[in-house]
Design brief:
By secondary structure, this protein is mainly α. 14% of the residues are buried. Strand 1 and strand 2 form a beta hairpin. It is extended and about 130 Å long. Helices cover 60% and strands 1% of the residues. The chain contains 22 helices and two strands.
């Protein structure tokens, strides 16, 4: 078969047909056939190239879509091992007490409306919109502690003893301990503080002080330099252990009593304050605290478990000196004791303006400021808390000359949203209300102890016991007669009543 002859077709690179001029039309038939074959070949090759180009475009689009899906997966799911950057913000969340919210509402109502509404925390009539926003923010950060709940419960029991009686007391370990300690708790606190005073590094030896070295001092005094060095280290180590133990005992008692019931904590706190615990702790810190923290009163050669494991090296004076040089840069035992004492002091003075004024009177600010030299975060935190509580009483000049300390307080210590700790505008911080505050707290604690523990702890003098004057109740009681009374009853009646001649008319006359 012969191929049909067609006119030559010219195509541009995009495959579009071009017009032929007159010269191309006058070409010979052979040239026409060649040109037609060539035109057919070019057309098919361009179509194939277009198809390949389309396939490549589709493939590129698929690759782009796949890459975008992979990017989405990588954005939502980070690769393993990639650290997640924490969100920036304060290391603590602000808190607002219910008392602070009430004080804010009373102040704003008195300022904008002209009167106060006691007990109303919802109505905002007459107050501008910014005050509404402020109250909303305060309520969002409102924090009600366990102590406030327990105090509210005690107030309800005191006001309504019949309709809201006290619920059954849970006999846990802390409750049993408090019941056992309650009759002699003041004596226990005084005894512990006396031992703490005797073990303090700043205390001087007195004849009337407690002898805490009886278990350490030998019967015969040391005769050699080695024995003297060993005894000195042992005495200092013994004092450090005593301070650590007593501070831990006091702190644990305060923490457990506060969790069990706030008035148990307040009862112990009051007796610690009465026993001069606040000036004692300040006296403890009124020393070279860096030297106390870095004290090296351990002998590694005879410490446990090195004293029972392996071959025992000979203890010499040179070995003691080299052992002291190789020890750590700080004593964890003394650092632990300092933190415990600071936490005790903070628990005793928190929200108590009268006790905070004791810190001011005893000039604790420079003492606590020296304790900031110890570069330990927890110890610095509790020192800054104590400084924050008394800043408003120290005056403008002290704040002006201690701006670095105030900056550290801003950075490290939790703040209340409406806290004015640095300015002294607190209405509750009036000096003439301090005695009233302590007396009211003591009355609440005594009422709590008398109601819950009066059957086991409170004993009356026999001459002052209450007497029942109701005739019906007295005659209605069942009286158990003793054996001696029953034995001699008839004899007594015969002798004192029947055999005796009574002149009744004389009784009527007189």
């Amino acid at each position: 078969m012969q191929a049909t002859q067609e006119e030559p077709v010219s195509l541009d690179p995009n495959g579009v047909k071009l017009e032929c001029d007159s010269q191309s039309s006058s070409a010979s038939s052979g040239n026409k056939a060649d040109s037609s074959e060539t035109g057919l070949i070019k057309q098919t090759s361009l179509e194939d190239e277009d198809a390949k180009l389309d396939e490549e475009v589709v493939r590129e689009l698929d690759n782009i879509n796949n890459n975008s899906e992979d990017d989405d997966v990588q954005l939502t799911q980070p690769r393993p091992g990639t650290p997640v950057i924490p969100a920036k913000g304060l290391p603590w969340t602000p808190k607002v007490r219910q008392r602070d919210l009430d004080a804010f509402l009373d102040y704003t109502r008195e300022k904008f409306v002209g009167f106060q509404v006691q007990g109303d925390r919802t109505s905002m009539a007459g107050l501008p919109h910014p005050i509404h926003e402020g109250v909303k923010v305060l309520k969002a950060h409102l924090y009600v502690s366990l102590s406030e709940v327990q105090i509210k419960r005690e107030e309800d029991i005191a006001k309504h003893p019949m309709s809201k009686p006290e619920s059954e007391v849970v006999e846990n370990a802390t409750e049993l301990l408090y019941q056992g300690m309650l009759p002699s708790l003041p004596q226990y606190m005084i005894a512990l503080l006396k031992i703490l005073l005797a073990a303090a590094p700043t205390s001087k030896a007195k004849t009337d002080s407690i002898n805490i070295m009886a278990d350490v001092l030998p019967e015969e005094m040391p005769m050699t330099v080695l024995q003297s060095m060993k005894l000195g280290i042992d005495v200092n180590r013994h004092k450090e252990i005593i301070v650590k133990s007593i501070s831990s005992i006091l702190l644990l008692l305060l923490k457990h009593f506060k969790i069990n019931h706030v008035y148990q904590f307040e009862f112990m706190s009051q007796h610690l304050v009465f026993a001069n615990c606040i000036p004692l702790v300040l006296k403890f810190f009124n020393q070279n605290i860096m030297a106390y923290i870095t004290a090296k009163n351990n002998i590694a050669l005879i410490d446990f478990p090195g004293c029972v494991i392996g071959d025992q090296a000979e203890l010499t004076a040179d070995a003691l000196e080299s052992n002291t040089a190789e020890m750590a840069h700080f004593c964890w035992r003394n650092l632990f004791s300092c933190i415990n004492l600071l936490r005790i002091l903070n628990k005793l003075t928190k929200w108590k303006h009268s006790r905070t004024m004791m810190l001011v009177v005893f000039k604790s600010a420079p003492i606590l400021k020296r304790a900031l030299k110890v570069k330990h975060p927890m110890m610095q935190l509790y020192v800054l808390k104590l400084l924050k509580s008394q800043t408003k009483y120290l005056g403008r000049q002290w704040r002006k000359s201690n701006m670095k300390t105030l900056s550290a307080i801003y950075q490290k210590v939790r703040h209340r949203l409406n806290d004015d700790w640095a300015f002294g505008n607190d209405v509750e911080a009036r000096p003439w209300d301090f005695q009233t505050e302590e007396c009211a707290l003591r009355a609440c604690v005594d009422r709590f102890n008398n109601r819950r523990y009066s059957a086991t702890t409170v004993t009356f003098d026999p001459d002052f016991e209450p007497v029942d004057n109701n005739l019906q109740s007295v005659l209605g009681k069942e009286v158990e007669l003793g054996k001696e009374f029953k034995r001699w009853w008839e004899t007594w009646v015969e002798k004192e009543v029947i055999s005796c001649n009574i002149r009744w008319e004389q009784l009527l006359v007189h």
